[in-house]
Amino acid sequence: xxxxxxxxxxxxxxxxxxxxxxxxxxIQEEIVDKxxxxxxxxxxxxxxxxxxxxxxxxxxxxxxxxxxxxGLKGALTCMLGTVLPSFLIILLIATVxxxxxxxxxxxxxFMGIRPAVVALIASAVYKMAKKSDIxxxxxxxxIATILIIVFTNISPIYLIILGGLFAIIYNSxxxxxxxx
Amino acid sequence: MSNLxxxxxxxxxxxxxxxxxxxxxxxxMKExxxxxxxxxxNSEFIDILAISEMTPGPIAINMATFLGYRVGGFIGxxxxxxxxxxxxxxxxxxxxxxxxxxxxxxxSDYFFRGIRPIVLGLIASAAVSVAMDAYVDIQSVIxxxxxxxxxxxxxxxxxxxxxxxxxxxxxxx
Lengths: 180, 173
Hints:
Oligomer: heterodimer
Helix content of chain A: over 70%
Shape of chain A: flat
Number of domains of chain A: 2
Order of helices and strands of chain B: HHHHHHH
Order of helices and strands of chain A: HHHHHHH
Radius of gyration of chain B: 18 Å
Distance between the termini of chain B: 42 Å
Strand content of chain B: under 5%
Strand content of chain A: under 5%
């Protein structure tokens, strides 16, 4: 069983490119449809908990599914399965990357690739902004965040803590007023 | 403090505060590995990011392995990778054991609604800071705008986009 779990998550880790959201349907197909390890409604709960926790979503999902199936041993096995393919592939690339980086052709290639990275991230911002319903107050928060990160030395950690705490206090007091 | 301990602490922090996917953690990662510790230059950071986009697995893991290797070879890469997933492991263990208590609580929902615009801002600022290094001339700006159009509106995927950009780079520079 543990070996089967390891293999399944290794496959997920090895064949999903593009990070978290791309991995979810593949994990679902493997563990809900093919293996029947988790029921569909439970899987949705697991995804929700994973999205709401820090760290890569696919790793979170694999840890949770591992716990459900085989406790602590299962969680470690599934996590290792998910992480190992990335780790091995990148390790292989990293051993040669810094030698080849100064090669003139490779250097030119990366001159072209760097603006493509901007395009990829900007496109993610565009799609995310379009999908979420962002009102005036929130746009101000987005802009303030950009200005603070780009022009000051304030750590993003403080912004996340502050934003999260503010939202908790604001919404709980709002609810209290509405209820009372 | 030895570099390996710094590496571990840095990536533990990055793992613990990365909400909202790989891109949202880039400002924190940049702050840690470039601004604080000078383990990489800006352009090396972007090149590693590009490779992470093209290889399987979560970007956070790829970046941790790569940067760890740069700082401390094989041991560094294993340590950084372990450190970046450790917060996930701790938090998911807590949720698994106490999940019923969390289920009815509205607080985590408030928290995530609250940080959503901040996460968007963090990703946007990652785009800005990468642009500040990637836009070295008018050609690079044009490459970026054209690719943005095709990625956003014509569903061009990350890997073909990066390969295309690499070829254009060889031709133009």
